[in-house]
Amino acid sequence: MKKLSSLIIILLGCVAITYGQSDLKRANRYFENAYYAQAIPLYKEITKKNSNTEVIKNLADSYYNIGDFTSASRWYRYLANKYGNDLEADYRFKYVQTLKANNNYADANKIERNYLKSINDLEALAAFEKDLEYLENVRAIGDRYALENLKINTEFSEFGMIEHGSEVVFAAPKKQNGLLTFTYGWNGEAYLDLYSAEKDRMKFGDSVAKPFSEKINTKLHEANAVFTKDGKTMYFTRNFYVDGKKKTDENDVVHIELFKATWENDTWTNITVLPFNGENFSIEHPALSPDEKTLYFASDMPGTNGSFDIFSVAIKKDGMYGEPVNLGSTINTPQREQFPFVASDGSLYFSSNGHPGFGALDVFISETKKGTFQKPDNVGTPVNSGFDDFSFNINQATKQGYFASNRPGGKGKDDIYSLTETKDLNIEDCGQFIAGTITDAATNEVLKNVTLQISNETDGNAIAGKITTDENGTFKLPAGCELSIVINASKAGYQNNEKKIFLGKRRNQTNDASMALVSLESIRKQEEAKRVAAEKMKVKEEKDRVKNIIQKEKDIVKRDDKLMIRVENMRFDYNLWYMRRDSKKISQKVIDMMKKYPEMVLEIGTHTDIRGTAKYNQELSQKRANSVLAYFIEEGIEANRITAIGYGEAQPIQECATEDACDEEQHETNRRCEFVIKSL
Questions:
Q1: Which domain CATH number covers 564?
Q2: What is the per-residue pLDDT across 392-409, written as a single tens digit (0 to 9) for each?
Q3: 214 and 339 part of one domain
Q4: Is the distance from CB of 73 to CB of 101 less than 8 angstroms?
Q5: Which range is least confidently modeled, 19-23, 421-425, 527-531?
């Protein structure tokens, strides 16, 4: 009791001294020693009077480190608004993570995209957009697991559950028995111990959990146990605490290390720290390969790519260990990789906030080929969320396992969930379908054996080989998303046709590319019909035009089914062919009309009386016609618009049975010239 009172006095004295110092110094000391839960209220009080950037950064980071992403996001937003694209990378990264945790993926992506554009890093921007597309493909799989929040969870943190025989072993805060309880400054909770419970009794709640082993548990942290198949050897994480004493680095920090213990005489004994631990860095989260010849772990030892990397170390036959080997950039990123687990097929599961994920720590799987781990894949939802998802393990035979998460809706800060895998991890690019029916445009009958060529409209590259329609004239083929494509259809005896389609983001959508082809025979018939119609129209228009001219020009008359230009008394002297002076004057009306209507074509018809022989009169009338033709050409009328025909005595106006039957005036009437319009 005296010792207890002395301890209380010492603690009270420390408290009095502490509160005598300035709030800022105390807050910074808490922050520097990772006592984030204690630093937060002091920083919050300081911000009411002082918006110093370092204070804001430390407050935001404190919230971030204890998993309060909503509060952290509010303070990171303050920094982002103040510094924009000049915000330091680490703070921008954590701000983006908190936005994702709050399901604000749009703003998270916008911040990253704008930053990459601002520094003109086109390669990184392309990689970022590819990662977003990849995550959409992961989301498209849907929920791959059935989850259950275990009744063994409390309002505190539980995680790292692993099966051990008929029991499960997991980490949880120490039970608060007695006046004094050691608490962990990081999050204000008690230090972690390993607990165990019968698997079939977990349904009864946390009361069935009991401390795993008084030999294993200490007053500091123990967590993340892994057991050999025979159950006689275990590896676990503990603060560097040996023989009742903690070991610290030069900054008085007690790091996390890996320990080994063996089961002998019904107790855990031979508890030893592994030889590759160090006082100035942490090693944590052990995992065994299926053949138990390799131990995997997470560490921030020298040579890491990020804050924590995953390493492996060989376990030799004599029980000694090889040198730790970093798993390299395929697995490790500039951010954080932790909580490895190796499945029975050699696949590596781990948590990371550096690979493409949904926010904070996500679980990833890396399959092994010929002893080499492949590019990791996000295991998908609902295991992964915008919050920390970690300590994943699964029995590949039963497809059942456990993981932990600090997502909303749980009982405590970190909760353990059981999982059952219900769907394989088949990550496929966004896919849609192009389908349709090709028909005859005239008959609407389906057309089989139509050749289809599908190409990308942007670059012209084919996105599928040549395909043909089936017996029903239909086709269907897969395609990607967000593409502008052109479908060209061709068939012998038909005119080619094409259709352009834009494929959006909606997965498994079927896009209709039905088309009708016009047969060449139909085209010929259509062209012929067009030609006939055009001719009819032309004739009609010509008739209408001529009709309008006739109505307008009173000297154009119809006589004996002929369209003529009316002239009065254009005569020739007896037995002569040249034009008389009065005839030239009379013909000027015809010449003027031909110039007015350039399309007009005329026939000059000349006649004789019956005196003389028919042969002579025929020759005489042709001379008369030629003389009129020559005169018209002389007056500027094109020769190709005029024909000159002599009709002799064959078409008299005055019928004369004999030369003496008609007088001279009647004979003169027959010696005439007429103008017949051949076209107008």
A1: 3.30.1330.60
A2: 999 999 999 999 999 999
A3: yes
A4: yes
A5: 19-23
